[in-house]
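Schema walk-through. Below, the input block comes first and the output block second. Nothing else is stored per chain. Lengths vary across the set, and this one has 161 residues.
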Amino acid sequence: MTDTSRNDDFLASPYQIALLNQQSHHSVNERQLTEAATAILRDSEFSSAAISLAVVNDDTIHELNQRHLEHDWPTDVLSFVLEDDGDHLEGEVILSADTAAAAADELGNSAAEEQLLYVIHGTLHLVGYDDKSDADAQEMRAAEARYLREFGVELSRRAAP
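--- output ---
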């Protein structure tokens, strides 16, 4: 008798990305955002990961920022590491589509480019990048630019997300 069953563990990607779009005012390129998070995870030290990406509005991200960081304002992106055992990572990246659209108008970028930047920034935080010191911020900006270029995006003038 021949076993023709599939080995789902073998065939499945070690990097599982789930995206939930919880807002309806702005379009979202879900494929591009999940591909960006996957690219960063593949380049990381983690051999497996489960990451959720959530696209929300300013009211929702304001409430999350207030609840988790005690900041009483909306922000562009939040990231939370839920598990990190050195080999496997679980985390969340939450971005505001409203903030992305407003920043895009102000900076002359597209809202999709801003959303992509926010996912890249948040995922870089999950895999260990930091931007607290000038040197760390410079390293993070270089990584952001490298991943943006993979998607044909060049953001020359911008402040940090």
